[in-house]
Amino acid sequence: MLAKAKGKKVVVVGDAGVDIIVHFPRFLNDERTKVEYKTPFLIGGGTAANTAVALARLGIPPSFIGTVGDDQYGRYVVEDLRKENVNIDHLIVDPETNTVGVFAFIDERGERYLWGWPRTKQSFQKLDPARVDFDLIKQADWVHSSGMAIVAASSARETITEILKVAHQAGVTTSFDLNLRVDHGALDPAYKEAVLTILEYCHYVLGSGAEEYYYLNPEADWRATARSLVRADRTVIARMGAGGSLAYAAQEEVYAEAYPVQVVDVVGAGDIYNAGFIAARLCGWSLKESIGLGNAVAGFSVTRESARSSPRVEELIAFLQAY
Fold it and tell me: Does domain 3-322 have CATH number 3.40.1190.20?
């Protein structure tokens, strides 16, 4: 169903790490004497890496640009991306940095509590521009990145901005997932400025409705803020979970409903949505069809555990046929 996208050159830039899933003990009786323990498990993570893997599973294996440490987690990332058919020729292994593992503690209600470690010399915040192949960027059909890697003032922030600028100026389609990280109810001014600068080089901006667009202008309705980011060559996508998704473009505004699924785990759903949207646009699908496919791949993913639950093409077809 996505055959037209095969052979397209996609580059994903940003963070790659691991997720460590730890379930709280579940008590089986009121006396709390009988307890069920689930075995913790390790799985690939990172917002940009999640999108890269989801694209590869849809038959569009991308090249990945980012940094991991020369450590146990970093080696896991290398093998995981290779296994998922993501091109890691441009993945940097830097022994001076630490690959981040995100511990996801899950309580008996399914709520998640996330903690990233180590807290220092985090690999995703480092991206040496001298080690980036800008010819790869200029020759791509699409370049995508994520806001997770630009949260802190860092070489990653500067280099990702430059990558998107070079791609945009070369006529390459670019997209950016906000992935905002908000402390104390407001965006750090320098961080906000960095985000807005990057958006100048993006054809598509993706974010989570009220959870992200609101913080770009807390004094306005988030929908008005999303619309304000639209340009003649820039479309803004708002993901709303069970509420579906919206697309704001210069000439149209479209909406696509979410799929009525039984939700197990929403972590990574936005990253996976991005892959579905990109795949659809690469196939020449309409804007409404494209956000609809984003909803579909995200809908499939939330019925399973972990951020690496994106569908392969045959699974996506079966999912769509069921609805």
Answer: yes
